[in-house]
Write a structure and sequence with these properties.
The structure holds two protein chains of two kinds. About 11% of the residues of chain A have low confidence. Chain A is built from nine helices and no strands. Chain A folds into two domains: 101 residues, Rna Polymerase Sigma Factor, Chain: A (Orthogonal Bundle); 66 residues, Orthogonal Bundle (Arc Repressor Mutant, subunit A). By secondary structure, chain A is mainly alpha-helical. In chain A, helix 1 crosses helix 2. Chain B is of the alpha+beta class. Chain B has six domains: 164 residues, Immunoglobulins (Immunoglobulin-like, Sandwich); 79 residues, no CATH class; 72 residues; 82 residues, no CATH class; 61 residues, no CATH class; 125 residues, Glutaredoxin (3-Layer(aba) Sandwich), CATH 3.40.30.10. Helices cover 52% and strands 12% of the residues of chain B. Chain B contains 27 helices and 15 strands. In chain B, the strands form three sheets. In chain B, strands 1, 2, 3, 4, 5, 6, 7 and 8 form an eight-stranded antiparallel beta sheet that branches. In chain B, helix 11 runs parallel beside helix 13. Chain B is globular, with a radius of gyration of 29 Å. In chain B, 39% of the residues are buried. Classes of the chains: A mainly alpha, B alpha+beta. Chains A and B meet through helix 2, helix 3, helix 4, helix 6 and helix 7 of A and helix 1, helix 2, helix 3, helix 4 and helix 8 of B.
Chain lengths: 181, 680
């Protein structure tokens, strides 16, 4: 047997298709960190990001049997993660829950990294003030690098709507982060 | 106001900072949780496909559908809609696209070239209420209204949804019903939404029911959507498992079942302590336990269901089956029929299976009073379904006249245009072809009944009408024999020429004819008759042929882990594709005949692909060897073939032409040689 760590993604997918869960571990070690970042930036919640990525890897052994994408596996995983995160946010909207991280009280930091923490809180607070509809478009376009057409397909909106939302998101962020200039 | 340069630099700095926002660590603990959930058999359906933009589909140019509607079906594959009016496909839109029950909806239609310039077009609809059943056989189609021109090639109308309607599908056509725009057979649809803007559970369930048999793939996607939106309802998961069983196939089922069992246990723990539950919850808990094969919980919920909601549909079905099972053991059919009658008095048309079982018991006893009684029950639930009742009546002497009266009534009905039975996708002319086939079947039954009642001449005239179209060799032979008995040798020979033209009866020659007719037949004349018969066969069969194009990438499993593509197996020659299952009685019975036919067709250069519903295994190979079956076997391990052919039962046979297009489907095995000959 070839050790899974040395296999490329395509080979790992093949192994996972045949039920080899070691391949799942290898894919987790390779991609989970980046995917957690994507999920976190969209949901604004560490707990939800973990749930999203957990769900992704639980569903992966079955999903890869129908996986027939031509492109890189990483990009496909990222898109599925985005869909899962959006789905979770929709359900959150229905339950009217707010992600925990957004309500965490600021604590006084006394370490040397306090300044960096301060800046991070500032940024997260600004992002949290954006309605989900705007934040999602902003994150997908500006941070994750999706095109407006791709965002339209992901969210089920028109390309033009995506453009308008991005414009409004940037305007709102600039207002909140006034000192950024 | 900032200039462009400041804007770009602001964005770049912001982007960098946000990209540096790391999520939680990918820890071993997280992976351990993944592994633990997998080991419990948990199953998550990943949203691997995009959806079609809601706004574009429903309300072109309108933004108000909003985030809620967009998110509702975020990962659902909806039918693709053409956004611009083409030659034959227009665009139908509704405002609001997410109506409430009983709301008035503005309908706008952009007509395609085939329907522009009309002074009005007709909007036809199939409405569904929460209690409507799956499949569309007994559903009525009605005219919802007329759309009138509003300039720019648009037509408009206002439509008030009836209060009880939760789901509706639409098509548009000209006033004569000759040009139909059915959105490429996908139809347009409306789902009733709740005050939060979500499609209601009933609306989605009726969508599933409407798609049943029409588009299983979309039905499955709908079931997934229901489970995502209404995860607290047992029915959501029970329906989802039903679709997984049918759509995803064996390769997926074991893991799915384990996950569903865990979910069933969670529902059980939550619902079992409750003293009072509705009939639906009780019924679906019982049903869910049954289909995921948890026998302990199945018995628990069966007891509660029958005790607490004895007249609910699932309970009525169980009680009817219990009566028939007892009859199977004690053979006391009279007592069973009396019990079924009592159950009907108590519960009425709660479940279709009560009617089926009561009707079957009445037939077994040939009890004419009971047959009439259960026929009335059936009409009460399925008003349009009466041919099988009329046919059964003609086989009971005391009811034969009544049966023939009903058959004539059916024939008159078929002769009268009636849009209620015309499917939304179908033009009036297409319906006429279908009605003609139904009329042929009724004429045969009526003709036989007349002959059986001693009116041979009237019976023969009726049967002669039936053999003028269609292709039914057994019927040709039967009618020929009746003609010979009335000394109509010419008519009989013409029909026997058709019989001899069919490859299934090619052994028929002049000797057989002489035996039947009792007189020698001129060989040149007989050859001409058979030759004419072949032309006639080809013409009649091709009249009935379809043109179903299959997707190009259908995979089959040839052996464990090795895939074959259906198109490479079928392309370039006429091919018989047979779906079979050794776990299906009727299918298993036909396997030897299929093997003989396959061997014969192979000699004539016909391709053979047989597809079974289980994985390729040593056990399957042993079975094939024991049964001495030599045809090539492929597994529909991914259900791609079932989906492509749109078929979910066995046995089922399809004949493909050399281009890989399905020309004949769902036909009897005996008809395959003729269908192959018509294509060669």
């Amino acid at each position: 047997m070839t050790p899974t760590g040395s296999l490329d993604d395509a080979a790992l997918v093949e192994r996972l298709r045949s039920g080899d869960l070691e391949a799942l571990d290898a894919l987790f070690h390779r991609h989970a960190r980046a995917l957690l970042g994507v999920a976190y930036r969209l949901t604004g919640s560490s707990a939800e990001a973990e749930d999203v990525v957990q769900d992704l890897f639980v569903g992966l052994p079955v999903a890869v049997r129908r996986y027939a994408e031509q492109g890189a596996l990483g990009a496909w995983l990222r898109t599925v993660t985005v869909r899962l995160a959006l789905d979770r946010m929709r359900r959150r909207e229905r339950r009217r829950e707010v992600p925990l991280d957004a309500t965490v009280e600021r604590t006084t930091g006394d370490s040397s990294a306090a300044g960096a923490m301060e800046a991070r809180w500032e940024l997260e607070r600004a992002l949290a003030t954006l309605p989900d509809a705007l934040r999602v478009v902003f994150m997908l376009k500006e941070v994750e690098g999706y095109s407006h057409a791709e965002i339209g397909r992901l969210l089920g909106i028109r390309t033009g709507t995506s453009e308008v939302r991005l414009h409004r998101a940037i305007k709102a962020l600039r207002e909140v982060l006034g000192g950024e200039r | 106001m900032m200039d462009q340069g400041t804007d770009v630099s602001f964005l770049r700095r912001l982007r960098d900072k946000i990209a540096a926002l790391q999520g939680p660590e990918a820890t071993g603990a997280l992976l351990a949780r993944v592994r633990e959930r997998l080991s419990r058999g948990e199953h998550v359906i990943l949203p691997v496909a995009d959806r079609v933009p809601t706004e574009a589909r429903w309300r072109r140019g309108a933004a108000a559908a909003g985030l809620i509607a967009a998110a509702t079906a975020l990962w659902i594959l909806w039918p693709g809609a053409s956004l611009t009016a083409g030659d034959s496909h227009g665009e139908l839109t509704f405002t609001p696209a997410t109506p409430h029950a009983g709301e008035t909806v503005q309908v706008t239609y952009r007509a395609p070239a085939t329907l522009t310039g009309r002074d009005r077009v007709v909007l036809r609809v199939r409405y569904r209420t929460p209690r409507d059943e799956s499949y569309n056989n007994s559903m009525r189609q009605i005219v919802a209204g007329e759309l009138t021109p509003a300039g720019d090639g648009l037509f408009r109308a206002s439509l008030r949804l009836p209060d009880s309607v939760v789901y509706a599908v639409f098509a548009v056509e000209d006033v004569d019903g000759r040009v139909v725009d059915s959105h490429g057979h996908q139809l347009w649809e409306l789902l009733v939404h709740d005050r939060h803007g979500w499609p209601t559970f009933d609306a989605l369930t009726q969508r599933e029911n409407d798609l049943m048999g029409r588009n299983w793939e979309q039905g499955y996607e709908t079931a997934r959507q229901v489970a995502a939106l209404y995860p607290d309802r047992v029915a959501s998961w029970s329906n989802l498992f039903f679709y997984e069983e049918n759509v995803l196939g064996e390769s997926h089922l074991d893991s799915a079942r384990t996950g569903h069992r865990a979910r069933l246990r969670a529902f059980h723990d939550r619902l079992a302590p409750r003293a009072s539950l509705g009939g639906d919850d009780l019924g679906y808990m019982f049903w869910y336990a049954r289909i995921v094969r948890d026998s302990v919980r199945e018995s628990f919920w069966k007891r509660r269901l029958e005790r607490e909601a004895p007249a609910s549909p699932f309970a009525v079905q169980n009680r009817a089956i219990a009566i028939v099972s007892r009859e199977w053991k004690d053979k006391d059919s009279v007592r069973a029929l009396a019990d079924l009658d009592r159950l009907w008095d108590e519960a009425g048309p709660a479940h279709g299976n009560l009617i089926n079982l009561g009707w079957r018991m009445a037939r077994r006893l040939a009890d004419s009073a009971a047959l009439v009684r259960w026929a009335r029950h059936s009409w009460q639930k399925y008003p349009r379904d009466s041919t099988f009742i009329a046919e059964a009546f003609t086989q009971v002497p005391a009811l034969r006249e009544e049966g023939m009266r009903l058959l004539r009534q059916e024939l008159r009905g078929l002769d009268t245009p009636n849009d209620a039975r015309r499917a939304l996708e179908r033009a009036v002319d297409e319906q006429r072809v279908i009605d003609a086939a139904s009329a042929r079947r009724i004429l045969v039954t009526l003709g036989d009944a007349l002959v059986a009642s001693g009116r041979t001449s009237a019976g023969l005239d009726t049967l002669k009408l039936a053999v003028r179209q269609g292709w039914d060799v057994a019927l040709f032979r039967r009618v020929a024999q009746i003609q010979l008995s009335t000394r109509d040798t010419t008519g009989a020979l013409r029909l026997l020429g058709l019989v001899a033209a069919d490859p299934a009866t090619e052994a028929w020659g002049r000797d057989s004819v002489r035996r039947v007719t009792g007189a020698p037949v001129d060989s040149a004349a007989w050859a001409r008759l058979v030759q004419d018969g072949r032309g006639e066969m080809r013409r009649r069969l091709l009249d009935l042929a379809t043109r179903l194009h299959l997707p190009p990438d259908v995979r089959l499993e040839a052996a464990v882990g090795s895939a074959a593509r259906l198109d490479t197996l079928t392309r370039g020659r006429v091919t018989l594709v047979a779906f079979w299952s050794r776990f299906c009685g009727p299918s298993k019975e036909e396997l030897p005949a299929l093997d003989r036919l396959a061997a014969r067709l192979r000699q004539h250069g016909v391709g053979i692909v047989t597809i079974t519903d289980e994985r390729v295994s040593d056990d399957l190979r042993r079975f094939l060897a024991e049964q001495k079956l030599t045809f090539p076997v492929y597994s529909d391990a991914w259900r791609e073939a079932s989906r492509a052919f749109g078929q979910w039962g066995t046995p089922a046979y399809f004949v493909l032409d050399a281009d890989g297009v399905v020309r004949f489907q769902y036909r009897d095995l005996e008809r395959v040689p003729a269908e192959v000959a018509a294509l060669q």
